């Protein structure tokens, strides 16, 4: 059936498919990123080594082999540090460690999280990197014929200091100074060149401090989950159409975001069986709230970070200022009550 159709674009929808999309597009002679460049989106270790080799600003890092004694591998460790699985997303398994005494139990905890990974190397290795103080932001942009363009820089007003790194609020426009924004753009641009990315969406996470803008993550995709809806509020940017145009090698005009806007990823506070979420109606009536989207249905099992990898849902807001957006999101969240039931395991004697 495909032989009778003209394929004009191949699009990966998440970190797990961007490499495959690049391989297929290359075979079909369509616009694409080099497959190895796309692979960096899903492998934190490969990405770190590539950025380091290209002299990009990244925290000091090394790999731990969980099958070997940890004590023989810790000559490079500096506390506080952050331990991460090599391939998971949504901050799953990412844990801050402040002392040598904490490191072994943290590694054992992460080992349990990654034990079902498909690849042996991913099950037996973790990334350890220096903890970076500073403001954390998210960069959204795109590449067209190698030129990087900015869609938005999102602030994360809730401090992400650990021990876990559950993201909550994204809001734009950013409060960063013009100089800091230029530092962010330069860091992302250098990272894209280091990867070899030339086309398509770009999502990056950075820490900004007195030393500059540090790359935490960069991926050849749009912002994750349902968060992309924040762009389309009030006739904003249609990210899906943008991605299709880029995959076809077409230029396009991006509308300016005229209002402040934001999204809150509703955290999962404790594990249990979801019975219901109360207060959705009240949250929807808060001034500035555009949408309350609960994506996990009743009867499903909730797992918080660092073992979990999902959010209960999303709150979307827009207003005249970023501060008003944050106030609206926090007020709406205060109306929500998550009712859960405990889970009991039956053990045969």
Protein architecture, described:
The protein has ten helices and 15 strands. It is α+β, with helices and mostly antiparallel strands. The chain has three domains: 1-59 and 134-257, ATP-grasp fold, B domain (D-amino Acid Aminotransferase, Chain A, domain 1); 60-130, 2-Layer Sandwich (Dna Ligase, domain 1); 259-342, D-amino Acid Aminotransferase, Chain A, domain 1 (2-Layer Sandwich), CATH 3.30.470. It has a four-stranded antiparallel beta sheet, with helices on both faces.
Concise overview:
This protein is an alpha+beta fold and 349 residues long.
Secondary structure: helix percent = 25-40%
Q: Which regions contain 5 or more consecutive residues with pLDDT less than 50?
A: none
Total count of domains: 3
**First and last CA, distance:** 55 Å
Secondary structural class: alpha+beta
Order of helices and strands: HHHEEEHHEEEEHEEHHEEHEEEHE
Named CATH architecture of the largest domain: 2-Layer Sandwich
CATH superfamily of the largest domain: ATP-grasp fold, B domain
Query: How many runs of DSSP E, i.e. beta strands?
Result: 15
CATH class of the largest domain: Alpha Beta
Question: What name does CATH use for the topology of the largest domain?
Answer: D-amino Acid Aminotransferase, Chain A, domain 1
How much of the polypeptide forms β-strand, as a percent range?
25-35%
Main sheet: strand order = 1-4-2-3
Q: How large is the count of helical segments?
A: 10
Task: Give the overall form.
Answer: globular
What's the pLDDT, averaged over the residues? 92
Radius of gyration: 21 Å
How is the main sheet built? 4 strands, antiparallel
């Amino acid at each position: 059936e495909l032989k009778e159709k003209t394929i004009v674009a191949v699009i990966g929808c998440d970190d797990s498919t961007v490499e495959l999309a690049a391989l297929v597009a290359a075979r079909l002679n369509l616009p694409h990123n080099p497959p190895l460049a796309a692979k960096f989106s899903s492998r934190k270790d490969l990405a770190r080594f590539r950025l380091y080799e290209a002299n990009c600003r990244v925290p000091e890092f090394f790999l731990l082999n969980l099958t070997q004694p940890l004590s023989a591998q810790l000559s490079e460790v500096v506390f506080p540090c952050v331990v991460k699985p090599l391939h998971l997303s949504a901050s799953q398994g990412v844990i801050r460690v402040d002392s040598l005494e904490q490191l072994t139990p943290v590694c054992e905890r992460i080992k349990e999280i990654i034990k079902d990974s498909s690849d042996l190397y991913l099950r037996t290795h973790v990334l350890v990197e220096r903890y970076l103080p500073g403001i954390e932001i998210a960069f959204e942009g795109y590449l067209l014929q190698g030129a990087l363009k900015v869609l938005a820089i999102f602030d994360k007003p809730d401090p992400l200091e650990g021990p876990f790194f559950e993201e909550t609020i994204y809001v734009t426009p950013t409060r960063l100074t013009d100089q800091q924004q230029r530092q962010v753009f330069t860091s992302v641009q250098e990272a894209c060149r280091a990867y070899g990315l030339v086309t398509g969406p770009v999502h990056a996470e950075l820490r900004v401090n007195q030393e500059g803008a540090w790359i935490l993550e960069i991926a050849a995709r749009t912002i994750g989950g349902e968060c992309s809806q924040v762009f389309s509020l009030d006739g904003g940017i249609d990210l899906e159409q943008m991605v299709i145009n880029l995959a076809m090698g077409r230029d396009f005009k991006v509308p300016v975001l005229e209002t402040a806007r934001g999204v809150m990823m509703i955290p999962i506070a404790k594990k249990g069986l979801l019975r219901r979420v109360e207060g959705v109606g009240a949250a929807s009536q808060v001034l500035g709230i555009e949408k309350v989207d609960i994506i996990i249905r009743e009867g499903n099992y909730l797992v918080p970070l660092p073992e979990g990898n999902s959010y209960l849902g999303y709150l979307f807001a827009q207003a005249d200022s970023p501060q008003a957006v944050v106030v609206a999101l926090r007020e709406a969240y205060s109306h929500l009550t998550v009712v859960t039931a405990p889970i009991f395991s039956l053990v045969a004697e």
